[in-house]
């Protein structure tokens, strides 16, 4: 496992990290005992960064993860969770007010069985009034940072332009990391356009969804996926090509997304211990660079599709 510095936080994080959304049954129902074992498997095999949110499974992911963390020494992992996006009884809710996000931090710590949070993120700022994020949400989290309740503060979003805007409108050092998903993978490298900006502002970079929400898988994208049909078809052709060469596209996708040292870590999610081990094995194996080139040729003009515009 390779470990990279996350900006100026002082955290050296594994280049492959554990996203706990699956523990909330976000993708399908899970067996809680298997989910807890998946967390142990990740940490026991070198993963030291875990990301979750109260939104995932409407608090369930944090509760299941908390049961696992009770059994793991606190100095063996860094823990990231989020504020602003929630849900209950199947209904999604958003609240980026100072009071709610402050209360949310303490609620998350209780569910997670921890007494501090390494990294607290404002979740999916695209759903918020960005001015509120700048003037109310982030100052509330900075106050918690000053009090030692949280160690570091970050923001997350699908659209990197939103992350850039927030950083440009807050005092230097307010935002220490960004989390962006689906924009550094075999089919989409948009995140590269923003690396210089983030680095110039001492902001660490977290990538997520190396499989592009199922596009880069042998099973193919789910019906709800926002990608255009042409991109779905191109990715399926790429998957078939990898299969023909005895190299699952999932393996290539994980290897590619974790290969850029300017991106500290890439999150994947699974509540299956065997899948966790498989992905760790992928990232610890040498990547076939020539196959990357062939796959990207197959995907072709769709390489930089801006999903946010579809």
From TrEMBL:
GO terms for molecular function: L-galactose dehydrogenase activity. Residues 16-298 form the NADP-dependent oxidoreductase domain. SUPFAM superfamilies: NAD(P)-linked oxidoreductase. Pfam families: Aldo_ket_red (PF00248). GO terms for cellular component: cytosol. This is Aldo/keto reductase. The lineage of its organism: Bacteria, Pseudomonadati, Bacteroidota, Bacteroidia, Bacteroidales.
